[in-house]
Write a structure and sequence with these properties.
This protein is an alpha+beta fold and about 650 residues long. Helix content is about 35%, strand content about 20%.
Amino acid sequence: MPLPAATSAPTTTSFAEQFTPRARRALRVGSWRAGPPVGDRTAWGRVSERDRTALLAAARHWCVEADRNPPTLSLWARYSSDGDRTPYETAQQALLGAVASSALALGVTDDEAWVRELGDRVWRLCELTAWCLPSHYALPESGERPFLPLPGRDILDLSDAYVGGMLAAVDTIAGDRLELAFPGLRSRVHAEIRRRVLDPWRNEVDFWHGLDGPPNNWAPWIVSNVLVCSAVVETDPDELASSIDRALVILDRFRAGYADDGSCDEGATYWWWAGATLFEALDLLGEVTEGAFDGFAVAPVAAMARFPMVMQLSGESQVNFSDGSASLPTNATWNLLARFGERVGDDEVAAHARWMGRSHPLGFSAQLAPLFRRTLAELLDSAWTTSGDAVPGMPASWYAPGTEVAVFREHAGRVDGWAVAAKGGHNDVSHNHNDAGGVIVSLDGAPVLIDVGVGVYHRDTFMPDTRYGIWTMRSAFHNVPLPAGVEQPYGRGFAASGTRFSDGDGRAVLAMSLLGAYPAEARLTALDRTVSLDRSAGTVLIEDDWAFSEPMRMTLTFLTAVEPVVAGGGILVGDARLDTDPAFEVAVDRIDIDDPKLHEVWGSAIFRIRLVQRATATSGSHTLRVRRAQQYPEPGAPMEAPR
């Protein structure tokens, strides 16, 4: 039974306060289920034929992949030997995909063949030395990273948690059938969940759980899965209550890291592992307490629900500051967002999610294991996109003082026209790129000025001394100034200041000083950036004003997805024209893409426009005017080849 929407005004100031004596008394010990048991043929009969067909095809695919590419010792060792995370993670994902899809296939078919498939793969998963990923296998008491996982010593990382959470959820829908076919398998699964997830949750130091250091997606992602494990495996009310108490301390710390605007400094891609897993944790706590716990009434949860909607640039693309992709991520689950909107009473978010759901059918990707519960919920609610209004909700403008990110559009709730995102902020956010002052521009949903995003994760991605040697992290490859050729460094102290946003009289403006984002060797005494959208004129302006302590040259960089063509005083980028100042020389660099993740978004290359001041000076200014290429045709304008 769905729980009621949260009250419009927060009734408590923390999640912990919501776990009242009444909520403790209401705990459902041993009776919570992630979904209906396989034997409930009425519930499973609600699955649409389209989803049934796609699921069975995915299940057959993942079972073949799991047999073709099992997790092996040599794949595990690749991370220790050369830092390559991908081989083992790909093999583990195939096994997890086979488990998750086999469980769902059993639900939709009630076919005994899927019992055998599921049992064999659950057993294989239980036999793995570690559910943790090689890149995360560090002993919490010392930080030591053994070359191989230690027998009997798993580490409670993201993977360990969601493997446990998936198995616990599978047990609630298919455990009876598995136990009938394989007596003792259920007790083995419960024992592994206790040993690998719940014991370290209770007994080990807090390493990744969000009690120390800045909170990020690890906190709700791990907690949401630990709560599934606890709700399924714990038989003692006091133990279950104790697990919830611990979870709420961590979730409150995570929540406190968000400003009232609900903005996620990890970016739009990571929201689906941050805000979305917070939703799953709070939703479960509401269910396991029969609605006596209502975390959705705590600020800023309702504001957090709006974040994916406001960050969208089109039906397929999004603002991707931090470690995000310009394409919508494969883990975006619009049914979850619709439920989130409904729970916090935000009809606009729910309607937007239904609109997206109509063009993004349920998928069964390589992330099926961590997405298991949200996939199950959508699978069993095939009519969810028609349960209310389905209209795009992207607002005309949105500004988050907490992260100093602004998104503004030519038209509210529409993809056509200009969409602009710009940021102030600092260079020490979670999944940071050195890009204070960065700008993204799209026209009719197509990219004009881009943030490249992040490539395939490697050991170097998360090492402080190597991360900012990766070109996608550097300010020289973002849409920001390069005063005297100097880049922005990493660190909280390198930040924009005086950031302010306004939207009125048809003009949206984000303005800031970027003086503090650069080190002393840039020789700056002032650097101001203003990004604006004039809706009546249909133009975007990026205005920079600066002063040096001695004569220097300013370089301005702008990245594009298509090759720019220099054309008589301006630059053509697809359907857009960039008008530049003749006091600046235009250079275009082709940057070949060899990273698989970036190639999937951008193809074989992206391009960097460098506007280089022709003469040194102690001060200067530049206005980049972006408009439709056909808006003011200039017949006979000479064409120049890119330099």
